[in-house]
User: What shape does this take?
Amino acid sequence: AENDKQCEGCYDFTELKFPCKCNNVSYCSEQCREKDKHYHMRRCAYAEMEEFNRTFRMEMTESSRRGK
Assistant: This one.
């Protein structure tokens, strides 16, 4: 279909119904999500750390602006 995307587990282009909590990758089935879990965990942890760092920098900038 037109909105199909590539599954990170099997690489088929299909409807993806199983997103990772990080929202960076999705899978067509629980089996594909499980199959890719060990590989993706390394990327996912990195993505989560990047988000934490970005949020922390924004909070520090806001605190500086308020004079705290």
About this structure: The chain has one domain: 5-63. The radius of gyration is 17 Å.
